[in-house]
Amino acid sequence: MWSRIGLVSSSSLNLGLGLAKRWLWSKSETGQRFAAVWGNGDYGRLGLRSLDSHWRPAPVLCAAFRDQGLRAIACGGAHTLFLTETGRVYATGLNDFGQLGISDDATYSTEPMEVSGLPQEIVQISAGYYHSGAITADGELYMWGKNTNGQLGLGKRAAKAVPLPSKVESLIGLTIKMAALGFEHSVAVTDGGEALSWGGGEYGRLGHGHDSSSLAFFKSTSSLLSVIGD
């Protein structure tokens, strides 16, 4: 049995579902997009300047969002990313592996803080359990956060936790169209429709036919453009 959640909008723009019953919803009202959140508030993952949980939608009243609307949201294990219409990225919640991408070394943040070091306009964001990613307008992929299984794609010499965004140099020459991050693995799709996967391979999650982890990039043999759209 379903029930209404009490949000009224003529234009529902984005919906994100996170763990522990945390949801985010972006809508348009008077021409500007904003986020309403509810669910588990541990570690400040709701971005409401508190650790309280909310059982009904509450708007994210971050000062940074007053002059710029939201384009997208992404929910991780206990952190949340926000992408503004101007291409800037903000993060809130747990930061024990640097998944917020902020210069502050605090273990968590209860309000959205701007991610440090992203070089240009961001067009897409993704949040894994303990890691995060962002794609630039030029199709470059930046990753940060936990890296114990190579899920950031930064190579063998990369640290086990990367607190600030780092470009995935191995993908230079490819234009990344979208990325999706899981528990300890990552998947990206190029503008040519190729799917690439890397990181923890348990339970066959990388799609390369076995359950071993990989620091290299496994490439699919078929195009996904028909799935994700042109």
CATH topology of the domain at 35-179, anyone?
Methylamine Dehydrogenase, Chain H
Percent of sequence in beta strands: 35-45%
CATH 2nd-level architecture of the domain at 35-179: 7 Propeller
Strand order of the largest sheet: 1-2-3-4
Secondary-structure element string: EEEEEEEEEEEEEEEEH
CATH superfamily of the domain at 35-179: Regulator of chromosome condensation 1/beta-lactamase-inhibitor protein II
Main sheet record:
4 strands, antiparallel
Protein name: Regulator of chromosome condensation
RCC repeats: 33-86, 87-138, 139-192
Keywords: Repeat
InterPro entries: RCC1-like_dom, RCC1/BLIP-II, Reg_chr_condens, Ub_ligase/GEF_domain
Describe this structure in words.
This protein has one helix at residues 225-228; strands at 12-17, 23-29, 32-39, 54-59, 70-75, 79-84, 89-94, 108-114, 122-127, 131-136, 141-146, 161-167, 176-181, 185-190, 195-199, 214-219. The chain has 230 residues and is an all-beta fold. Strands 1-2-3-4 form a 4-stranded antiparallel sheet, with no helix packed on it. A 4-stranded antiparallel sheet has the order 5-6-7-8, with no helix packed on it. Strands 9-10-11-12 form a 4-stranded antiparallel sheet, with no helix packed on it. Residues 1-5, 7-13 and 221-230 have low confidence and may be disordered. It comes from Trema orientale (Charcoal tree). RCC repeats lie at residues 33-86, 87-138, 139-192. InterPro entries: RCC1-like_dom (IPR058923), RCC1/BLIP-II (IPR009091), Reg_chr_condens (IPR000408), Ub_ligase/GEF_domain (IPR051210).
